[in-house]
Amino acid sequence: MRREVYGEESGVTKRNVIISSFVAVAIAVVAIANMGTARFTVIVLDEQTRRPIEDVDVIGCFANHYLRWEDASEEIVHHKHTDRNGRCAFWGKTNCGETGVRVRRYPGYYDSEILRIPYTNTDCVVRQPIWKPDNVVVTLMLQRVEHPIPLFVKVARLKVDSNKITDNQGRFAYDLLESAWLPPFGNGKHADIDFSCLPREQLEDGKNFNHTAPRYRNSIRVEFTGEDNGICVMPTTSATLKIRTAPQEGYKQSVTIWRQLSSGLNAEEGYDVGRNYCFRIRTRRNEEGKIIESYYGKIYGDIEVRQKYDGDIPSIVGVKFLYYLNPNSLDRNLEYKTGSNLNPVKPNPADGHFKP
């Protein structure tokens, strides 16, 4: 009897082991199939009301730099539509690439910027990567199109021989309304912005392996001339329309931009492509102190110091910046109507597409 009972128990045990083995194999197969899969959920909201937006076509991209999978491509693109709660879920294969999401051409709203999904992986060269954290939830805020208007848009560039700037006492100026540099670099008439090269700062020598070289810091003071005129840094945002309206107050006379060498002899600079400004120029007040004339604009993507290397220490040869200007006095609206640039000069294709 004991052997029969033992035999029955043994049979049950064997069946359990077999079932457990099948389950383990199934789990392993699923786990292997899911290796390299990034998952995330997107919530799309109206930026102004914070309410979810239904039936939005959301684009998810999964980049692949090493094509290990048979069905892999350099970029796998999925389209999903949001539900009544403004949500949709994405999953896709990606290996050592970037994963991102965006919205384009939704009626009544501006396109969103590409939102990168922050994943890390285990081993992207030898084994299939495992992406963490899993099931990230991200939010896309869509901005409404409200009152876009034509603006004057231009990329202002100055790049000359360094001795020309030195001969001009390290100064150069720009006329924003005429979109021209002042003499001797152009035919502008009114100095809205005065650029002054500050004395080069000599820093302690830097070293990169066996190479030792002098370090420096080149700086330029960017000053908006005239009383009540000035510039202000605007909050950093990932939205397409980064600045809709210029503020009434908060402008300061100047900012300083710079470039230098680090202790490891690598180039460093204060330039930040995510930094944006508003500015006010040509301000006049009446006898009662009320502003009766002023012009407002914005600068997208900071102001860049341009240098030319001659040995280890370069010299300043100019600056570069992209600005939008509302030509209507006292109008602080800076919502640019794409394709309605008031600049009569055709934009350089290298400047790319001007944003709202």
Using brief descriptors, characterize the structure shown.
356 residues, 2 helices, seven-stranded antiparallel sheet, 19 strands, globular, Immunoglobulin-like, 11% helix, 2 domains, mainly beta
Question: Structural class, from secondary structure content?
Answer: mainly beta
- Identify the overall geometry: globular
Distance between the termini: 87 Å
Taking all residues together, what is the mean pLDDT? 85
Rg estimate, integer Å: 29 Å
Can you describe what's shown?
The protein has two helices and 19 strands. It is mostly beta strands and 356 residues long. It has two domains: 36-142, Immunoglobulin-like; 152-351, no CATH class. The radius of gyration is 29 Å and the shape is globular.
What is shown here, in short?
With 356 residues, the protein is mostly beta strands. It has 2 helices and 19 strands. Strands 9, 10, 11, 12, 13, 15 and 16 form a 7-stranded antiparallel sheet that branches. The chain has a 5-stranded antiparallel sheet with strand order 8-19-18-17-14. It has a 4-stranded antiparallel sheet with strand order 3-2-5-6, with no helix packed on it.
List the helices and strands and how they pair.
Layout: H1 2-34, E1 37-46, E2 57-63, E3 75-81, E4 87-93, E5 99-103, E6 115-116, E7 136-142, E8 152-157, H2 162-167, E9 171-175, E10 180-181, E11 193-197, E12 201-208, E13 211-224, E14 230-234, E15 254-261, E16 267-269, E17 276-285, E18 291-308, E19 315-325
Parallel strand pairs: 1-7
Antiparallel strand pairs: 1-4, 2-3, 2-5, 5-6, 8-19, 9-10, 9-11, 11-13, 12-13, 13-15, 14-17, 15-16, 17-18, 18-19
